[in-house]
TrEMBL record:
<keyword id="KW-0472">Membrane</keyword>
<dbReference type="GO" id="GO:0009898">
    <property type="term" value="C:cytoplasmic side of plasma membrane"/>
</dbReference>
<dbReference type="GO" id="GO:0015031">
    <property type="term" value="P:protein transport"/>
</dbReference>
<dbReference type="Pfam" id="PF03357">
    <property type="entry name" value="Snf7"/>
</dbReference>
<comment type="similarity">
    <text>Belongs to the SNF7 family.</text>
</comment>
<dbReference type="GO" id="GO:0032511">
    <property type="term" value="P:late endosome to vacuole transport via multivesicular body sorting pathway"/>
</dbReference>
<dbReference type="GO" id="GO:0006900">
    <property type="term" value="P:vesicle budding from membrane"/>
</dbReference>
<dbReference type="GO" id="GO:0005829">
    <property type="term" value="C:cytosol"/>
</dbReference>
<dbReference type="GO" id="GO:0000815">
    <property type="term" value="C:ESCRT III complex"/>
</dbReference>
<keyword id="KW-0813">Transport</keyword>
<keyword id="KW-0967">Endosome</keyword>
<keyword id="KW-0653">Protein transport</keyword>
<dbReference type="GO" id="GO:0031902">
    <property type="term" value="C:late endosome membrane"/>
</dbReference>
<dbReference type="GO" id="GO:0005771">
    <property type="term" value="C:multivesicular body"/>
</dbReference>
<feature type="compositionally biased region" description="Gly residues">
    <location>
        <begin position="1"/>
        <end position="17"/>
    </location>
</feature>
<dbReference type="InterPro" id="IPR005024">
    <property type="entry name" value="Snf7_fam"/>
</dbReference>
<keyword id="KW-0963">Cytoplasm</keyword>
Length: 232
């Protein structure tokens, strides 16, 4: 507060002191000015050092004067370094203060908004509302449980009696299948006179047409397999 009360332009004084943004801008301008002064002094130091080397023992008086000026420039340069450190510290402190002020201001706005939101709320009504919600959730759960339970339709029938009836139906189907089985007939054709000689068959392009005796034998074998399956 002391810093804001002292110094500044007439317009800033009329407003009761500079704003943080104005103070930070001035500090940055000062830092820039001192940095340029540093560069100038460093250049002068190098120049005076070169003059001292140039004169050397030939002109001791001029060489000593150059070294004295170099020392003064070095002293000023050291002072500027200290000043820049102080300004940098002050600028960082002001930036942090400004940031904290903005944070507190925004937190105050948020607190006021929360207060405005809650001013129309009654805690007793909220408790009643939450209790109603809990009760309705319990009712909904009971309805879901009731719907998801398996309906007990058909439980009045005896399951053992139903299984016995099913076995009778299966036995009837098995007996019917045994009656419908046709035994194979004796082949009417004679066997070939020599082993290895097959009956004549009809051949077509890339396809062999089975002869009648071979086809008959295959049918007989299928019937025997069906009979054996029913018997087992």
């Amino acid at each position: 507060s002391k810093f804001f009360k002292g110094g500044g332009s007439g317009a800033s004084k009329g407003r009761g002191g500079p704003s943080p943004q104005e103070a930070l801008a001035r500090l940055r301008e000062t830092e820039e000015m001192l940095s340029k002064k540093q560069e100038y002094l460093e250049t002068r130091i190098e120049r005076e050092l070169a003059l001292a080397r140039q004169h050397g023992t030939k002109n001791k008086r001029a060489a000593l004067q150059a070294l004295k000026r170099k020392k003064r420039y070095e002293k000023q340069l050291s002072q500027i370094d200290g000043t820049l450190s102080t300004i940098e510290f002050q600028r960082e402190a002001l930036e942090n203060s400004h940031t904290n002020t903005e944070v507190l201001k925004n937190m105050g706005y948020a607190a006021q908004a929360m207060k405005k939101v809650h001013e129309n709320m009654d805690l007793n009504k909220i408790d009643d509302l939450m209790q109603d919600i809990t009760e309705q959730q319990d009712v909904a759960q009971e309805i879901s449980d009731a719907i998801s339970n398996r309906a007990a339709f058909g439980d009045e029938f005896d399951e053992d009696e139903l299984m016995a009836e099913l076995e009778e139906l299966e036995q009837e189907e098995l007996n019917k299948g045994m009656r419908d089985v046709r035994l194979p007939s004796v082949p009417s054709t004679s066997l070939p006179s020599r082993p290895g000689k097959l009956p004549d068959c009809h051949f077509t392009f890339l396809m062999i047409k089975p002869c009648s005796s071979t086809r008959k034998r295959a049918e007989d074998e299928d019937e025997m397999k069906q009979l054996a399956a029913w018997a087992s």
